[in-house]
What does this fold into?
Amino acid sequence: MVRRTKEEAQETRSQILDAAEKAFYEHGVGRTTLARIADVAGVTRGAIYWHFSNKSDLFQAMLERAHLPFEELAKASESTTEPDPLGRMRELLVQLFKQTATDAKVRRINEILFHKCEYTDELNDLRQQMQDNSIDCDQRIELTLRNAINKGQLPIDLDTRRAAICLHSYIDGALAKWLLAPKSFALGKEAERMVDVALDMLRLSPGLRV
It folds into this structure.
């Protein structure tokens, strides 16, 4: 009975996350209320508050669920025992580009993140969460770059902080541009070359040296 209750709770949580994704995509994060999400999910607002403290908490959980398939590669690239950290990061970024181009769910999540998330005064806590996420991502990229330097894959005088910020900005910019104007270039087809351009920047740019 306890196991069944846990399964039901997990199923309800997944329903709520699916409903939030649908509502955020259709109406934007700022205009979507928890009442609307509850209605789409077919649950009460109380059920939402049982699983999530507020809309920002729900939004963060939606992002974490979407990013879970990429997490294994991210952790591998950050591990000091990984023999090819740069290769793992390349694999992760290529997969991110290709799945955004071909997987409707991944594309929808990224479109919400880049183009349907309005940082109004009401959503100050969400804005802070996104700022924290961005800084955390920079730090994780920098950790991978340090690993790559230690494995002889990148120049020893690479400014890892500046390089991490530039790489993060390049990836976000490419995703945001394609999601806004998908006919402007073939993200999936160009994924490997675009990632290789970014990695060449790390290896060759004088502006990224200490």
Remarks:
- DSSP finds nine helices and no strands in the chain.
- The two ends are 61 Å apart (CA to CA).
- The domain at 68-206 is CATH 1.10.357.10 (Tetracycline Repressor; domain 2).
- The chain has two domains: 4-54, 68-206.
